[in-house]
Amino acid sequence: MNIFVINSGSSSIKYQLFRLPTEQPICSGLIERIGLENSLVTHKVFAGEQEHVVQRTLDLPDHEAGLREAVGLLTNREIGVIRKPEEIEVVGHRVVHGGEHFAATTVITPQVKEEIKKLFPLAPLHNPANYMGIEVAEKIFPQAQLVAVFDTAFHQTLPEPAFRYALPTTLYTDYGIRVYGFHGTSHKYVAEQAAEYLQKPDAKLITIHLGNGCSMAAVAGGRSLDTSMGFGPLSGLVMGTRSGDLDPSVIFHLITQLGYDADQVSTLLNKRSGMLGLTGLSDMRDISQAIAQGDERANLAYDLYSYRIRKYIGAYAAVLNGLDAIVFTAGVGENDSLLRHRVCQNLDFLGLHLDEAKNQVRSKQTREINTVDSRAKILVIPTNEELEIAKQCQALLSSTTAP
Ligand SMILES: Nc1ncnc2c1ncn2[C@@H]1O[C@H](COP(=O)(O)OP(=O)(O)O)[C@@H](O)[C@H]1O
Ligand SMILES: CC(=O)OP(=O)(O)O
Ligand SMILES: [Mg+2]
To answer: Which reaction is the catalytic activity of this chain (predicted)?
Structure first.
């Protein structure tokens, strides 16, 4: 079964093509800067240990143009891996917000699309882009089965005290206002990898996903018990452009005293805050460079970012009543050794001791970066949301087609 997985973001598309049970993708790609000049396409074709990389800079005005470019590379006469789009049997879509309706992976129907659309206001950076990816895939792969895998699904196990807000009950019962949690596919994937690495299925883990969006989860025995994002993907950690936790009084003040309207508040908190608001930069590589050049604002922002993570580590150790490992993952978590160093300072009371030399090692493998006498482990595990999505598509379709 050829499964093409699309992780469609606001300005980028990530994709991988799988033929399970082989977990190594046949090809993968990243299309960045969609809608801007000089969109960048990086397409990789894998054959055993070999990797063939093609990079192209061109103007891609929208997601449709981006996906058509990807399909052009998939079917390219020289480097193509399929002959025609009809060879793709399943397209798996990452959909960030599944709201109340979707507790699990779902075949996409017109009704499912409508529900995804209703959730646009709750995940304004994500659901519209995810939806666009679905519409484009319907045109390019009209014969394929389309499946949605929701970021929110893994957090359906949250106990009620963790998922409820202290608001009048009817806002929950009648309007679904509760914690949903996000990045679930990534938290699930790395938590499973960690439990396997530790040879401990009931492991108590804190998973720390640090990409453009950032979130943490407390996971025990493979079940999510708490997570830092909430009703939408805005609360919790400091992110690239999102504020994370904020006293709601600030919002009233913005509206009543500074003349903001609801859209302006949303834009401020989703697109102009976080590391961008603090430093003028949202990409952690640029921020690290600024710190190296002695930029005090960047240094303070980096401290704020790591302080918030440390605070949640303390909280989640209490939620779990113990700790086997913390797990760093996603773009920043996997690559930024200085950030891991700052987060792991003075966490000895939890039995966490960072090995500074191991922390510097760069690798694409699961690795342990704690000292040998550290009571709890510090792991770096590359996430693979696309592989997890492909597996969930296959599991769903084989269960629905079984006799
Ligand atoms: N070598 C690196 N050092 C520090 N940060 C990095 C490195 N490589 C990638 N990143 C950061 O990872 C973030 C993107 O992570 P990613 O998981 O790809 O996010 P998303 O899926 O939300 O687009 C960016 O802030 C980028 O700067
Ligand atoms: C939910 C979320 O924040 O996703 P991303 O990190 O891809 O922006
Ligand atoms: Mg991501």
So the answer is: acetate + ATP = acetyl phosphate + ADP
